[in-house]
Amino acid sequence: MRDAVILAVLGMGTVMILLYVINLMILVLGKVFGPKQTKKTENPKQGGAASSPAAAAPAQAAAPTEDEAIVAVLAAAVAAYLNTSPDRVRLVVRPIQTSAAWAQAGRLEQN
Questions:
Q1: pLDDT tens by residue, 44-77
Q2: Scanning 45, 51, 52, 84, which has the fewest C-beta atoms within 10 Å of its C-beta?
Q3: Is the pLDDT score of 94 beyond 90?
Q4: Helices and strands (H and E) in the chain: how many
Q5: How many domains does the chain have?
Q6: Count of alpha carbons within 13 Å of 74, Cβ hemisphere only?
Q7: Does 57 fall in a domain?
């Protein structure tokens, strides 16, 4: 009985140590071969003021994109449903697609 417990502990310990080593290897490989960090270059038109948030604000204040318009409509719809102000709607999260498109189409056909 004692030998079985020792064997089980050694086996589980070996597996845990090897899993930890594999985890470290994945982390190191992720750092070595992962996406490279790009440095932001200064915009010559702004004269080196690209790092200030005030200089970047006019560029970001362009016309809203289609996604932003959709988010605004969704926020208004949620606010109307909840009888609150649209200012109180802070986050709209798209549902995660958990199945393939063909599976969803099959479910729609059955309904």
A1: 565 554 455 554 445 555 566 777 778 788 888 8
A2: 45
A3: no
A4: 4, 0
A5: 2
A6: 11
A7: no
What are the tokens at 2? 């004692």
Which tokens belong to 45? 């038109």
User: Could you tell me if residue 24 is inside a domain?
Assistant: yes
- CB distance 85 to 79 below 8 Å: yes
Which pLDDT does position 9 carry in this prediction?
Answer: 97
pTM more than 0.85: no
35: which DSSP letter? P
CB-CB neighbours of 43 under 10 Å: 13
Tell me whether residue 49 is in a domain: no
Range of the structural domain that residue 26 is part of: 1-33
Residue 72 covered by a domain: yes
What are the distances in angstroms from CA 50 to CA 26, 42, 55?
A: 36, 6, 6
The widest CA-to-CA distance across the chain, in whole angstroms, is: 79
